[in-house]
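Sharing a chain and its predicted structure for anyone who wants a worked example. Both blocks are below, sequence first, tokens second.
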Amino acid sequence: MSTSTAAAVPAPRTPPDAQPAARWTADEMMTVAAARSLRDGQACFVGIGLPSRAANLARRLHAPSLVLVYESGTMDSRPAELPLSIGDGILVESALTVVSVPEIFNYWLQPGRIDVGFLSGAQLDRFGNINTTVIGEYDEPDVRLPGSGGAPEIAASCREVTIVMRHRRRAFVERVDFVTSVGFGEGPGDRERLGLRGAGPQRVITDLGVLEPDPETCELVLTALHPGVAVERVRAETGWDLEVAMPLTVTDAPSERELATLRALRTVGES
């Protein structure tokens, strides 16, 4: 992957059934892009929120055999509505089977049997490390966050990780305040040194574009823009000197089918 600080951006490749850019939101573009990254037949460890929405969208569109695994122990869940939490009963009702939480982690996740893990966070740094623990100093934080849950094990053991989060300067930082989930640590060789099984974060999908790790430095590089987004805007919302891949691509706009299916998804209890 070659990089440049002055990349020329090609014209967007817009599919015939796509709508004009003003017809979808940035979150919808991010969710569609995240759903497209999933392949049919994969086993996907899903979190609540944007990751769950994207995974359920993928299963309804191009990946009907996508296996959704939730931390609570539900396997191959096919919920008619989006769950409110990992403990939502709709996941149990629609699952192929339900196992204990220790079995999910000890038998399925840690041995590397899960293809892709979807994660998000409050902070992300240039090496793909995630913070969901504290903002500020650990002993006297400015904000105390929900914590790790199963994210460290997902980041360590899934064959690959996709991170989905909104692109804001306060979140995309040079160095996270606390490493909750390891991406590439301090750079090349850190995952191997720590004995982490998985390949780490292979893509970061935001509401502005897509970042991927440079194969040599492991630093996140901008590889794609969403339609209508400029490189300068992405750089302005990034807390490090963001490199740009050459060639820099532009994400396909959402199709009518993708938008209609996404907008039809409802969360449990939502009218």
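Comments welcome. The domain at 20-207 is CATH 3.40.1080.10 (Glutaconate Coenzyme A-transferase).
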